[in-house]
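Hi everyone, sorry if this is the wrong subforum. Our group has a chain we'd like a structural model of before ordering constructs, and none of us has done structure prediction before. Sequence below.
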Amino acid sequence: MLLIRRFEERLDDLFASGVIKGTSHLYAGQEAIAVGVCAALHPGDLMTSTHRGHGHFLAKGGDVKALMAELFGKATGPSKGRGGSQHVADYEHGFLGSNGITAGGLPIATGAALALQMQKKSNVVVSFFGEGGSNQGTFHESLNMAAVWKLPVIFICENNLYAMSTRLDEATSGPTIASRAAGYGIAGEVVDGTDFFAVREAMEKHGEAARSGDGPVLLEAQTYRYYGHSKSDKREYRTRDEEEQWRSRDCIEKLRLAIGVGDDEFS
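Answer:
Right subforum, don't worry. Here is the predicted structure as tokens:
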């Protein structure tokens, strides 16, 4: 979690200073989700990611130096410098790719899960997406197909409250994203996305069910992104008080206190 946080902080500096061109979507604040999920994965499990995918890549075991090389456009990056921030993949670690298309990874994960099922493997596919992606057609199509065929895929919604600058309750009906699982006859659960242990526990439970042939699950991890949607976002649509409230629940600080590590050892 610290590695992801420090990587994103450094990346923010590099983009702000113009050393790296273009834009990026930073994962700081959401680290407990990627790391909690990956702590419960088995060798051979697969993952699809989002436009905010650096944390997923690193939690899945991707090399931090190779990822930075990718962002600099170097051939030593996992995608030979051609994928950049939003389209990097590392098949060696089961990372099927980040994706610049909203909810674009869900049908890919569903297809990968079908392949695992046909190969009679005991692995699962994890598919990350944001709450904004839950209103895309690919969300409903993927959940429906995965439910019909009982595919071993865990759909994980990282609900950070804002789709770009649009707040969740301004564009999405229903009490939670997880409640939509009932429409497809699959399990759905809301988990505290700032709590590493809660995320890991939920992933262990639902991951084993999927491995046993019970089909897909929709897991909603409620969280908050510390930076703007992308580099140019000044966050004018949310208050500094709201940001401070979420920072007081920082996932890394929670973990530090939970495991009893001193602040000087946790930097």
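For your construct planning: The longest helix spans residues 196-211. Strands lie at 46-48, 125-130, 153-159, 162-163, 166-167, 187-192, 217-222.
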